[in-house]
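Preliminary data (for renewal application), zinc ion complex.
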Amino acid sequence: MTPSVASTSSATPSSTDPIGSHASGITEPHDAPGASPVLVGDHPALDLINTIAPIDGQMVDFLQSDDDVLRWLIQTGYAAPDESFPFKPDALRDAAHSLRDTLRTLIDARKAAAAPSPSLDVRALNAFLSRGHYQIQLTPKPDGLQIAHRYERRSAEQVLMPIAAAAADLIVNGNFDLVRKCEDRECTLCFYDRTKSHRRRWCSMATCGNRNKVANFRRRQSERRADHPTSPDDRQETERKT
Ligand SMILES: [Zn+2]
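Predicted structure:
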């Protein structure tokens, strides 16, 4: 089944935070045994961009081989668990890198613009999309029917076509106020904020959220101690030491 692309609303963005500017810092991606890319983007295009991510202070490219891309496609639901593709070596990896580079540049440009301007350079994404073929079909779902796009998968680019199509939808219909980078200074992951309050700040509360919460708590504590050097806590600490 083709994964559905969540609908997005149109609005006027104002923020210009770059989404994919971390890419230039990657010189030599290294293996990260046991690690896999996190899916925090809440949009397939952003999840693809997030396959370059910081691990222990170093930028890691999680898509270093055809097998890496296949695993990611299975992880994201764009390939079946037992699926494989008979393409020439590195074709899937190269196509994924090409699409990822295209999306990073385009999403950065779209975020910097006030609206999806006609002058936005969409040629690279259009070139990628031009290799796709799909049929539209009505298919059943638990509570009725749905319109499904059935993509041909005769090339590596075609396997990635649903993600390219989702990215095209994001560029045209996405609310780029909600397309943001994690607020952690070291983190480069980006996401589409689909929370009700639209106040999502972190790629994940379990990692960046908690780390910053603890750091802020410690900073407030030390500021309080600096403001009140003879507080009971400090006196007790002094007594213990003497
Ligand atoms: Zn983060």
